[in-house]
Amino acid sequence: MSIRRSTLTLAVVLCAAHGVCAQTTDSEHIAGARRTLALFEQELTVIEQLLDASARFQAANYVFRHVNVVDVAAGVIRPDMRVRVAGGRIVDVAPDRGTPVPRGFREIDGHGKYLMHGLVDMHVHQLTSASQHLLHVASGVTTVRDMVGFPWLLEWRDLSRRDAWLAPSMYVAGPILSTVRMGMYAHVISNGQDAREAVREHDRLGYDFIKVHNVLPKPLFRAVTDEARRLGIPVVGHVPHRVTVAEAVGAGLLTLEHLKGYIDDRTLQIAADDWISPTRDSHVWNTPTLYTHRLFLTPPAAREWASTDEARFVPRLVRERWLGEVGAPPTIAVELLGKQREVMRRLLPVSTRFLAGTDAGGGYPFMVSGFALYEELRLLHDAGLPLLETIRAATWYPARALGAESEFGRVAVGLRADLLLLDSNPLVSLAALRSAAGVMLRGRWLTRAAIDHELKLLAITYAEIPDIAFAASLPDVAWIAEVDRRTLLARERGYVFPQHHLEDIERAFRALGLRTSLHR
User: Fold this and answer.
1) Could you write out the DSSP letters of every residue in 349-372?
2) Are 45 and 363 in contact (CB under 8 A)?
3) Confidence at 364, pLDDT banded by 50, 70, 90
4) In this structure, what is the dihedral angle of CA atoms 182, 183, 185, 191, given to the nearest 10 degrees?
5) What is the maximum alpha-carbon separation in the chain?
6) Exposed, middle or buried by CB within 10 Å (0-12, 13-18, 19+), for 467?
7) Residue 22 and residue 504 in contact, taking contact as beta carbons nearer than 8 Å
8) Which of 189, 190, 301, 353 gives the lowest tally of CB atoms within 10 Å of its CB?
9) Rounded CA separation 213/147 (Å)
10) What share of the chain is helix, strand, coil (3-state, %, to 5)?
């Protein structure tokens, strides 16, 4: 796990663009290596918690009794219903006539409660920690779309689809297609042949989408979208510079991220071309990610964040680094959220095709998985999206955008048993989403008490800084052997380590003049 990657995701792009990167001193390098070791030690604890929870909460047959079903498609509440779950799927939704619970089913009392489909975060990155899975599930997020792919993420996606662990079901875009080097994040292309070969490779590897980036020149953008159309694989991502929204829609982009194109990414000003007409009645979906304003918190706002409940679920080492590095953000960046809201105001009369996505999980400061989606939904609603449309943006609409209405998105027969049992009506207030009495993930049932227990364990892990971060001497043989043992055991239990975590740990050991077998 890399503490540096928590703040350098954007810096990597800047270094690549300008060819200038600051060099660290030996002492800083060694201190960074120790922090990496400390975070990896904590990560092993989190992985063990995730694997333990995955073994403990297994899918079973359940029946929700006398529950109010939230029909997000129709926008109504269906009172006093009985919902049966078997094999990780919803097998029956009908009025509750008081008949006995079928043999082999466990009863969940839904009197006075509301049952809705689990939430979907349509723009995440899963780069930092296994804790993201626990935080997502604890927050009722049962499906995610990861917007930068890697081979190990495809393995994570397959594990979740096989219900092998307690993690949301995943959809995964390919590596970013860009003409600029962005470290591990980008597949660099330089001509039309490169572009077409990259699309074919990502399709062959099994990614769910092709992702385009800001700096892709128009001819390469056209080569990408043409080849993707030929293969039948969707294209998603940023509207590139010098490509208009009309051209992006015409090229068949499925989702537009961050309102780029509507806002000129080079100037952060609202684009002057006509983007209303091509959006009106089009196939395109927008994922505004208003939550990304967290990148530009002022020092007082950052200190306020540090006292929130969600801050407990960021490792103390990372938390302190974020707070230590925050400075006065550029005025143009602070004004960006207002411009995004203005774009939303203009779009709402012509489209309700909005998807809730957060950009959380990439290590960006002050962004916390799970909690992020609550905030994104609040921001969308505050920007003028009606309450029902806001709920749909995190449930039914993602399923439609992904062509997966037969898999998830509603409380309906045949769909995945991804469910939230709420204490109050979400069609009256978004605050209801924060009061879940329980979460079901593919038929795995977690009560409120179980969720709170998992969160408590995670907060305890992140509250301290491991001694290895400050040790005056090198890690001793016993510490290294224990880390090796726990890593191997996690692998044997089925955990797939992100490649960059192992590479970071190798670099940290080398910086301290040590060797390890973790990467082998």
Assistant:
1) TT---B-----BTS--TT--TTHH
2) no
3) very high
4) 60
5) 72
6) exposed
7) no
8) 190
9) 11
10) 45, 20, 40
